[in-house]
């Protein structure tokens, strides 16, 4: 199926474009610049997530509670966006959820060893934004972070902000 | 055929209100505003009852002597309110549901438009076209 590669290539190019833009204005990148790029990627993902969730929940009945929403994200939403379901969902029942995906679609192109572990966060920022945007449109403000220990498996940690 | 159609955001401010121009618009704005209370009541009530499947279509919110008000809420807590003329009794439930479906589809398209910021008033021509198609044709 060619459609998967389309987005993967586009995503890779988005990430490298943003980082090159930031680099060309100054000679080197320090941590603040890196953080700025990551926030930019995350913000893009946020808007995409909002639009996506509007389309995907058009016909589904209302959600009963937070856990219901997280389950929807792990199953239907993840299937539509990343073509697989989340492998493991853990929660402490107090607003923190950890979603573990053992073969994350945007990381499969990397080699499986430790070589590019430090480059991985750049490629996860957009997806974190998508999840945050989706949750925000469903009424849950959250903070989403991602970490990778072994490629291509990654964990997304979602902390729901209680107002 | 609707007399007034409104789209209200999650934070309860209007994203889009359009009514048949020949009549008193303020009256419709007021009606839509008061109908929000009924919508809230329905949304919170259904959650506590069966706890089963919750529908997006809320049905007849309340009838008054001149017109009837119908409501619909999306999963992103955006509310659609349609006001129809009471004298127009030929409108069945199914037709109202299909009007809400069309509104929801059109709204989804607006939401996915990258140039639209969520929370801004809706200015899409396509959305306007759909709404015009549903409003009462005057003169």
UniProtKB/TrEMBL annotation, chain A:
Subcellular location: Endoplasmic reticulum; Golgi apparatus, cis-Golgi network
Gene3D superfamilies: Trafficking protein particle complex subunit 3 (3.30.1380.20)
CDD domains assigned: TRAPPC6A_Trs33 (cd14944)
PANTHER family with a match to the protein in the record: TRAFFICKING PROTEIN PARTICLE COMPLEX 6B-LIKE, TRAFFICKING PROTEIN PARTICLE COMPLEX SUBUNIT 6B
Entry's family note: Belongs to the TRAPP small subunits family. BET3 subfamily.
Function: Component of a transport protein particle (TRAPP) complex that may function in specific stages of inter-organelle traffic. Specifically involved in the early development of neural circuitry, likely by controlling the frequency and amplitude of intracellular calcium transients implicated in the regulation of neuron differentiation and survival.
The name this protein goes by in its record: Trafficking protein particle complex subunit 6B
Source organism of the structure: Cyprinodon variegatus (Sheepshead minnow)
UniProtKB/TrEMBL annotation, chain B:
GO cellular component: perinuclear region of cytoplasm
SUPFAM superfamilies xrefs: SNARE-like (SSF64356)
Alphabetic keyword roster: ER-Golgi transport, Transport
Species of provenance: Cyprinodon variegatus (Sheepshead minnow)
Example GO BP: endoplasmic reticulum to Golgi vesicle-mediated transport
InterPro entries reported for this sequence: Longin-like_dom_sf, Sedlin, TRAPPC2L
Keyword ATP-binding recorded: no
Family: Belongs to the TRAPP small subunits family. Sedlin subfamily.
Main location as per UniProt: cytoplasm
Gene3D superfamilies linked to this entry: 3.30.450.70
Name of the protein described by the UniProt record: Trafficking protein particle complex subunit 2-like protein
Location(s), subcellular: Cytoplasm, Perinuclear region
A Pfam family this chain is assigned to: Sedlin_N
Top-rank lineage group of the source organism: Eukaryota
């Amino acid at each position: 199926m060619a459609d998967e590669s389309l987005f993967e290539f586009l995503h890779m190019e988005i990430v490298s474009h943003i980082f090159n833009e930031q680099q060309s204005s100054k000679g080197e990148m320090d941590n603040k610049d890196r953080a700025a790029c990551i926030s930019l990627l995350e913000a893009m993902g946020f808007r995409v997530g909002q639009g996506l969730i509007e389309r995907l929940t058009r016909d589904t009945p209302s959600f009963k509670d937070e856990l219901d929403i997280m389950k929807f994200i792990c199953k239907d939403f993840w299937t539509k966006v990343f073509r697989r379901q989340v492998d493991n969902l853990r929660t402490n029942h107090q607003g923190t959820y950890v979603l573990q995906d053992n073969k994350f679609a945007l990381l499969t192109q990397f080699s499986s060893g430790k070589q590019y572990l430090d480059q991985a966060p750049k490629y996860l920022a957009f997806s974190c934004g998508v999840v945050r945007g989706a949750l925000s449109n469903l009424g849950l403000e959250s903070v989403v972070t991602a970490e990778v220990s072994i490629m291509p498996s990654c964990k997304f940690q979602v902390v729901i902000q209680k107002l | 055929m609707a007399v007034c159609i409104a789209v209200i955001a999650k934070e309860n401010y209007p994203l889009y209100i359009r009514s048949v121009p020949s009549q008193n618009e303020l009256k419709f704005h007021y009606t839509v505003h008061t109908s929000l209370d009924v919508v809230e009541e329905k949304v919170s009530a259904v959650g506590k009852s069966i706890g089963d499947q919750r529908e997006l279509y809320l049905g007849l919110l309340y009838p008054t002597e001149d017109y009837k008000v119908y409501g619909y809420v999306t999963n992103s807590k955006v509310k659609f309110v349609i006001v129809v003329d009471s004298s127009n009794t030929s409108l069945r439930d199914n037709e109202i549901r299909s009007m809400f479906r069309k509104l929801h589809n059109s709204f989804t398209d607006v939401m996915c438009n990258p140039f639209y910021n969520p929370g801004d008033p809706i200015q899409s021509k396509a959305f306007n076209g759909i709404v015009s198609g549903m409003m009462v044709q005057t003169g």
